[in-house]
Amino acid sequence: MRADFEEYLESTRRLIDRALEETVKDYPCEISELKEVMDYSLWGGKRLRGVTLLSIYEGLGGSKEQALPFALGLEMIHAYSLVHDDLPCMDNDEYRRGRLTCHKRFGEAMALLCGDALLTLAFEVMLSARGVDPRCVTQAARSIARAAGIGGMVGGQVLDLQLEGKKSGKESVTRMYRLKTGALFQASAEAGAMLWGAPREVVESVSRWGCDFGYAYQIIDDLEDSRKAGKEETKDTLVKESSIEEVFKEAGQALQESLGAISALGESVWFLRGLSRRYAQNLESLRRGILVE
């Protein structure tokens, strides 16, 4: 892993954080209550999807500023999905990232509307990108829309609800993981390459990286949750469908496949390699019972 991986991750995360705050604050809307809820819901998080997109676009030769609207859009979509996921009709969570969930803090109706506002603002912001070929903007936005919708995140959430309280088999859980989490990571990588107008083989390579990395990311997330008591006990996960050793092997293999997908792309995707290797370290630490923070 390159020595500047951590520095790049942190500086780019801060860039996205500042831009998200400014975008909501400066939006021409007089409903201050809605802005407050949106700002609250955008707080925190690793920003991995946005950083992924920016790292690819920059690695291919572009500037972060040109692609930043797409990074913001991705993080707004991710935040909206968490707000809705926490609602009583879904997972009924009380806390998110150490704070009260949106509906616990502001009420269910406002949380629902906050999610709607974040989703729609995401596409307004992405389509406002300047200095990028409009055809590339349209292509990247379409990829993200597909990943966020029926054939991706929303479809995966439906499967997640259908599997709750059941043991449906490894194949069903794997499909759910790849839709619910893998699809948006896949689109983050695809969109970064599409915005630059990269050749099809580059788009396909980073797309495979995102699919495999996102799948491993969800497995690791469930491994972490399996160490805690609570509502996740009702979820159907690979931890329940396989032996713990098989689950670790599955996640490790997916991370190796993510590295293989981008093996021919050289230094342009150095950050993606670092991210896969970082999560391989996290996986090994989980195996030892100590999570790398």
Protein architecture, described:
With 293 residues, the chain is mainly alpha-helical. The chain has a single domain, classed as Orthogonal Bundle (Farnesyl Diphosphate Synthase). It has 13 helices and two strands. A hairpin with a 2-residue loop joins strand 1 and strand 2. Helix 4 (64-85) runs antiparallel to helix 9 and helix 8 packs antiparallel against helix 9. The protein is globular and about 50 Å long. Its cofactor is Mg(2+). This is Farnesyl diphosphate synthase. Pfam families: polyprenyl_synt.
Segments where pLDDT lies below 50 for 5+ residues?
none
Strand order of the biggest β-sheet? 1-2
Count of the separate structural domains = 1
The radius of gyration computed from the alpha-carbon positions, rounded to a whole number of angstroms, is 18 Å
Strand content: under 5%
Measured distance between first and last alpha carbons: 16 Å
User: Percent range for helical residues?
Assistant: over 70%
Calculate the mean pLDDT score and round it: 93
